[in-house]
Amino acid sequence: MIPIKQRLYHPFFVVTISVLLSIISYVIAHYFIYWEDFWVGFFLSALIPFVVSCPIAVIMDGYFKKINKQKIELERLDSINKKLFLLISHDVRAPLNTLKGMIDLITNDVIDSQESKLYLKQLSIKFEHVNSFLDGLLDWSKRQTQDKPIEFTSFNSAEAIKPIYNLLEPIALSKEITISTKNLNNIIYADMESYSFVLRNVLHNAIKFTPKHGTIQIDTIKRDGHIYTSILDSGVGISEKEIKKILEGDNWYTTEGTLQERGSGFGLRTCIYYLKKNNGKILIESELNKGTKMTIILPEAKL
């Protein structure tokens, strides 16, 4: 439904008004000054403004449509940029906080020189993981802002899972959570960065909602031409009402973790969006106080 204000400025509305005003002016003039051939003048008063203003209206209409299209595109890019800023702050903050914690232990002389050397070696490895993660994230973010199509490739699920495991393991260890993996070598046909984004968010949420000394298991299996990547945790669980909000709600939805960790509120909604673009979906099975199993389903690569 076009607002009344927009209709008033529509080029063809202006044409109609111009023709009507010309006719009305002619009729009023005819009332005071008698024209011998009324109908000839009447049609000319309608035809001349129509012929003059109609081409101008067509040009202006095309111009306004172009402006409106650009406006919609700018709004889309603005929305993506806002989400990407939240994404980067959400995904980067946790591993950087872990690195900062290790640096603080060394600089504040909490540990001796021998232990410091061990920590520095670990720190170097962790920095490599974060750097690799940032490279992938920024490349993926760039593709989103440029509206490039999804890059479907065949890749081994382990190629995406292992870097994410290395990235988030320190966060799990800080809560004394044990992460185990099995059956990781399955070939998926999808956009690898989208898969990594989804997996990273799901695993991060599993850590977030699993209390101290809990467990998380990552597993992949082949079934009916698809690869099922499941993340099973022993966390607080999710109620049916909350699952419905996550899967069907339009608004971002977030709750605090077991140690009051905060989230961006759009992670899982965005995961669902990118899985759809990759011909996949997510399943959530959960029971309060008994843990949650989230399963990422994507097509299997045809070798």
**Count of the separate structural domains:** 2
CATH superfamily of the largest domain: Histidine kinase-like ATPase, C-terminal domain
Mean pLDDT: 76
Radius of gyration, in Å, reads 31 Å
Per CATH, the architecture of the largest domain is 2-Layer Sandwich
Pfam families: HATPase_c
Protein name: histidine kinase
GO molecular function, one term: phosphoprotein phosphatase activity
Organism: Cellulophaga tyrosinoxydans
Describe the structure.
The chain has 303 residues and is an alpha+beta fold. The chain has two domains: 4-72; 151-303, Histidine kinase-like ATPase, C-terminal domain (Heat Shock Protein 90), CATH 3.30.565. Helices cover 61% and strands 15% of the residues. The chain has eight helices and seven strands, in the order ααααβαββαββααββ. It has helices spanning 4-8, 11-32, 38-107, 113-145, 157-174, 192-208, 240-248, 267-277, and strands at residues 153-156, 178-182, 187-190, 215-223, 226-233, 281-286, 292-299. A five-stranded mixed beta sheet has the order 2-4-5-7-6, covered by helices on one side. The chain has a two-stranded antiparallel ribbon with strand order 1-3. Strand 4 (215-223) and strand 5 form a beta hairpin. It is elongated. The two termini are 50 Å apart. Residues 260-266 have low confidence and may be disordered.
